[in-house]
Fold:
Amino acid sequence: MTTIAVRDGMMAADTQLSSGTIHRVQKIFELPGGGCVGGAGDWPKAYAAISWLLGGRQGDSPEFEDTELVILKPDGSVWIACERFPEFPILDDMAAIGCGSAAAMALMHHGLSAKDAVRATCKTDPGSSDPVQVYRLPKKRKMRSEGCSAV
Structure:
């Protein structure tokens, strides 16, 4: 189980993996070319789908039943993949997946950042727990024009 939230160029995820015992795993991965992907649901299937993306989409895409991915593209757009590719864009400016998604969405609608929403969800959702992993898109640098002066 998992809570992953995306808002304002930031993706945050808990790190709990429940498989009889509780382990910690990385759930957010930086993509080649920028942006990141996070996975929730059946973890071996989510990891296989993430690995396929990280490997440059070589070969047939895996199916990942009972699994969902959220992708934050370098331009800030949010895309979802449910059980198979291709992923699709969503129109919303925030998203959440996993067992804590409803709580995280409600908290973000009340102004919390993705990171704070996941942290708060970890306090009440038994399928999610700290520490929280965070990925932020790099801020775009504004071109600064230097004035020229005659000497």
